[in-house]
Amino acid sequence: MHTIKFTSTNKSDKQFVNALRKNVNDYFKENNISTKANFAMVLKTIVLISMYIVPYVLILTIPTSTLIAFLLVVLMGIGVAGVGMGVMHDACHGAYSKKHWVNNLLAGSLYLLGSNVLNWKIQHNVLHHTYTNISGLDEDISEKGPIRLAERSPLKKYHRFQFIYAFIFYGLMTLTMLLNDFMRLITYNKAGLVKSQNKEMTAEFIKMFFRKLIYLVVILGLPMLVTDFKWYQIIVGFVIMHWVASIILSFIFQMAHVVEGAEQPFAETELDSDWHVHQLKTTSDFARNNHFLNWYVGGLNFQIEHHLFPNICHIHYTKIAPIVEKTAKEFGIPYNLKPSFRSALLSHIHRLKELGRA
User: Fold this and answer.
1) Strand, helix or coil at 144?
2) Is residue 139 helix, strand or coil?
3) Looking at residue 155, what DSSP letter applies?
């Protein structure tokens, strides 16, 4: 697999990294708190998982009208997106708990979307976090159907309209993962990434097949067996749930990296930058003072802090963000912050327009 080394000739970069680590570590030591989940995080986990499970159980057990069922599947979509951002994400990074079995158990909440934990860890933990916003290595900025997210991707005439139609295709994110996971696993295996995770290809392929089969039997088969809804109504509800979850997930992810000020550096083998400084140059925070957003999106609006400290539970990001920002400014390193959800969304739309033009 093609890799890039991060090397910096700037002595100040190393000083920044040492100061940043010390300042953040001092916060946890001085306040005598763990970097992992606390009671508020556990409570949030219960609420978010319930937002997905409870509506599903109600659909199965209580006869409802089509309108009520529609509202319930929308709530399921909101819930499963919340679980993905606020529970699974931390667990896959080992940030939820010091106990591996807890992280593994909660990482498995990704199966509620019909997706695959191993694929996620390779695509997100390995590729995205290591090579953030580097075209050809970071799949988060690879082409999403007709959407151009990278400056070095081929430009087509229809891309000039992507700032309009992108939001329709964003709704296909989780359905695409459901269908494309097999090919992605094969691709990762050819690149040696499956072996790098100490996994065996055949076993992982078989486990993925049966997990997806079980998911489809539970999410589609059971409603067909025990409810009065027609099969096509259940399919429509399934698509609506995934579309809602996908729209939320896509918005939040894109507004952290495909916005104004988030660089997309290019290098063949070596990048003249410290890895930590690279994260600051390619990542953006947004809406840090929005309490509901901070709670619901699992700290993904604090992407700078997450990229620098992925092993720290997101419940602490609101406290360490000012520390990171202050340290970065002391060393003259840019800190990309969009003050609100609206400003981040508009910035993303502007970038889509820019990427749609030559």
Assistant:
1) strand
2) helix
3) P
Mean pLDDT of 47-69: 95
pLDDT of amino acid 142: 85
**DSSP H stretches of helix in the chain:** 11-30, 39-61, 66-83, 89-92, 100-107, 117-120, 129-130, 162-169, 173-190, 193-196, 201-216, 222-226, 231-257, 275-282, 291-296, 303-308, 317-330, 341-355
pLDDT in tens, 91-118: 999 999 999 999 999 999 999 888 999 9
Residues 6+ apart with CB under 8 A from 49: 79, 83, 87, 109
Counting every residue written for the chain, the total comes to: 358
CA distances from 193 to 3, 95, 187, 207 (A): 12, 22, 9, 17
Q: Domain residues of the chain, as ranges?
A: 5-355
CA 179 → CA 97, 171, 289, 329, distances in Å?
Answer: 31, 14, 37, 44
CA distance 354 to 358: 8
Question: 45 to each of 22, 80, 103, 161, how far by Cα in Å?
Answer: 30, 11, 13, 39
3-state secondary structure of 313: coil
C-alpha 72/C-alpha 55 separation (Å) is: 5
Cα–Cα separations (whole angstroms), residue 272 to 4, 22, 59: 10, 24, 55
Strand partners, 5: 270
The Cα 356–Cα 160 span in angstroms is 4
Q: What is the pLDDT of residues 267-305, one digit of tens each?
A: 777 888 899 999 999 999 999 999 999 999 999 999 999
DSSP code, position 153? S
Assess whether pLDDT exceeds 80 at residue 233: yes
Per the CB < 8 A criterion, the answer to whether 328 and 321 are in contact is: no
